[in-house]
Amino acid sequence: MSTPLSRSRAITCGVLSAGAGMAIGHLVAAVTDPAASPVLAVGSAVINRTPTPLKDWAISHFGTHDKLILLSSVSVATLVLAGATGLIYRRTRIGGLLAQLVLVVVAGLALLTLPTLGVRNLGPTVVTEIVAAAVLVGLPRAGAVGRRFSAPDSAVSNAGNTRRAFLAGAGGVAVVAAGSAVLGNRLGQAPDTSKIALPTAADPLPTLPAGLERKYRGISPLRTPNSSFYRVDTNLTVPNVRQDTWSLRVDGDVDHPFTLTYEDLLRMPLVERDITMTCVSNAVGGSYVGAARWLGVRVSDLLKRAGVQEPDRPGRQVLSTSVDGFTISTPLGALTDNRDALLAIGMNGEALPRKHGFPARLVTPGLYGMVGSTKWVTRLHVTTYPEAKAYWTNRGWATDAKIKPSARIDTPSPLAQLDKGSVIVGGVAWAQQEGVVRVQVKIDDEAWQGAALGPDVNVDYWRQWYFVWHASKSGEHTLQSRVVYGDGTVQTAERVPVFPDGSSGIQNLVVTVK
Fold first, then answer.
1. Phi, psi for 205 (deg, rounded to 5)
2. How many angstroms separate the CA atoms of 170 and 177, rounded?
3. Helices (H), 92-154
4. pTM of the predicted model, to two decimals?
5. What's the sign of the alpha-carbon dihedral 30, 33, 35, 36?
């Protein structure tokens, strides 16, 4: 370059080159394999290597926004490093291009660590490097175009034209990058599944009774709508799986391994079950719990067809695998007893939404999702725990994590400002495989008092409850709730964190009466 780049322009060139490369690479991945996007590949690699305590912290603080924050953090860090490559390029072109190449190579290596991706998926990464290098080399030359049309004896005109030409070039790159990113996101989105017609169950369940939410505002609906059902998984993007190419393989220590297609599932006798699911990351009083009506095939029927070898052998598990290679361990007994674990294809009267596992997922009553609810499942492999370790098992989580009974206060909200008088305290309680017997409420240091219960669907479904509190004293008050379940066991007050087998304790909710 005849005229050295200023520091600000060098940083701008580095940032825009990386931004344009990532955006166009993301666009190319959207039409080939969205998971091969360099940004998503790095994000997925980061997730796989994040220590468990940090993951717990992110989920507890950011909730379902943790993935967005991760992607934003990866993008910002990349752009900061890209700015540094621009400064290096300002001193030496070869050095800047090599520094940029290192960033892209890191993205490629991250992609290669993912179980379902390989060398064949490096196309978007290669495109990212080509575009980034072209912008890093070409954008600084935009000023030269401006100088070419400047008057020879006018320094002011020369500087102005140079600045305008650079800004025009930078603006053009930014517009193309932004447009590519938006288009890539749209093309990468999977089609909606709500219009897919499913057969009815062989023995349909009766319609759910009316819930308390119709009378007492703020209590969670008896049935959680699909759109608001919680989602916690390791996927940065929802897998776009086609039902006409999907299949499920049942194999391992079985006499008759077999493969099912989606059409095969539709032709099998389907059953409906009302089941409440809970995430192991759900803290006391948390929102990672939902109740739905599921339609599917009993997993026990599939395993019976396969003929499990030595079913009573200690340490038996079914290692289920998702389309992206993610694995979950489920105790064999939980899939073959009378709890009716399902290979579900429907949710609340519709085909499974993609974000909840379309075309099929496991739903295992009584177990946290990390050990019984594989989404986008494509394989059920009968084995033992010593022979195969799942994703969460390798990270120290429990292998037989039973959902801990709990009662949650939905209304009033924390720190609410309340008027004196009658206040409805209400929420939901669950004790999967045990059944909710009673819910009790405590106000400050008063004795525990019984709450009124909503409809009793079954032992695997949550139960709504409410309590009328006559708030007569101004000031702060602490509200607590607990569930009595099964044979009369009372929910434990011992505070336990979510790792390694789920949290426990009594919710404490503080409100103020005016």
1. -75, 155
2. 11
3. 93-112, 123-138, 142-148
4. 0.84
5. negative
